[in-house]
Design a protein that fits this description.
This protein is α/β, with parallel strands linked by helices and 211 residues long. It folds into two domains: 83 residues, P-loop containing nucleotide triphosphate hydrolases (Rossmann fold, 3-Layer(aba) Sandwich), CATH 3.40.50.300; 101 residues, P-loop containing nucleotide triphosphate hydrolases (Rossmann fold), CATH 3.40.50. The protein is built from six helices and eight strands.
Length: 211
Amino acid sequence: MNAPVQTLLRRGAIEIADVVKSYEYGGASVLAVDHCSISIPPGEICMILGPSGSGKTTLLNAIAGFHTIDGGAITLDGKMLSGPGRPKAVIGADRVVVFQNGALFPWKTCLANVAFGPIVQNGLTKAEAEEKARALMADAGLSGYENKYPSELCSGLQRRGEVLRALINDPAVLLLDEPYRALDALSKSVMHEALLKTYYRTGRHYFLHHT
């Protein structure tokens, strides 16, 4: 394993310690996450499985900083995201989320969508971002679709574009909410292979859930 990957593998350690989260629904308190504890070393792919309503998305959103927790603590690389005195994590570039119902910009081509993040953040020039986007698209089986608009793509191809738009930002942790939603068996296999290729190449950390 080369040195750059070893460095990346030291990023992305998540500690979820005794996390509790409840909601008020219909005048009653509903327990969504019940004293959950998970330790995820850096560089690992962690998949959370469970039926609808079991708290998977709630836990992911707590890591991302989209809502508060009622108890416990969540840390990333030893830094507290949320816990005592800080019920809600600060949203940061170290955690990028691909949502269940994520959407590409309809007015941008597939290539422009994937390259969007580094350009708007001034991390890369347009040429550099597009070169990186083309490489990611090739890995995910999207070569030839660079100039297509989302309305011209099937839902499976759109989903691949959504994942790549997150990957190009090089987060410490990629949070995937049902990453294979709307994919048929073949597309799911291609996307799974693409994620694994990126993982082995970069040591990127994935925290995802699936029903």
